[in-house]
Amino acid sequence: MRLHTVYFSAKGTTKICADFISEALQMETRTYDWLKQPCAQSIEISSDEALLFAMPVYGGFIPERCVQMAKNLKGSHTPAILAAVYGNRHYDNALLQMKDLLTAQGFCVIAAGAFLAEHSIFPAVAAGRPDAKDKEAMAEFAAKCRGLLAERGIFQGMEIQLPGDPAYDPAAYKGVALKPDGDETCVSCKACVEICPQGAISADAPRKTDDSACISCGACIKVCPTGARNYHGEAYQGAGVQFAKKCAAYREPEMYYISKSM
Questions:
Q1: Helices marked H in the chain — which ranges?
Q2: Please, what are the domains in the chain?
Q3: What is the tens place of the pLDDT at every residue in 56-69?
Q4: How many Cβ atoms are within 10 Å of 128's Cβ, its own excluded?
């Protein structure tokens, strides 16, 4: 059985989770990196294969560009496993949104997990995560998924139950006011220009950011060789202190599975 692993990972943490779960599933794997290789064509995944769909959570939802790319995934009662990766605030409606997206594309979601990672804007929050405990949870998650995949026929016509508000509205999330930019240490290497999924950085002025296009994913920060690209200013510092206080509690991964008793 082949596993198709799809992820969008601007700062690398969703990739860490996707790679760990994918390896633990112990299947032949084909990987799709939607940051570096946006999905522009249909991807058909048959009923005797499986999908691992791993996405970061921004404001309680997955990125809108990933919503649109997910419409190119085509299943045929294909089992799907969800992994939402968030930075210790909450994943809100992300798992439910992911399930709805994939169900509409012909997939049957058999398992879903919300996993923790360093926050993409305030990296002091959930710093060092996923940690050893997170990886133990992901290993347990993968083991249970292997069992479900082995008896996939039992769940024909069933539907997994996930937390969230069925009346969620992704359009309600307008992004955050904080946007990264470059400082005087920028050497104009243009790595940020090449990686930005939104085209929000111009090659002519790589220190600047088009705030109307930027989704604050942090991909430019991740690739910047000098550290010039980052969030700057007193507003960012103040917001970081308040956010860290609000989200200081250690959150545990949450995992859900389709049930035979439904």
A1: 13-25, 64-70, 94-104, 132-150, 191-195, 219-223, 234-246
A2: 2-168+250-257 (3.40.50.360), 191-246 (3.30.70)
A3: 999 999 999 999 99
A4: 10
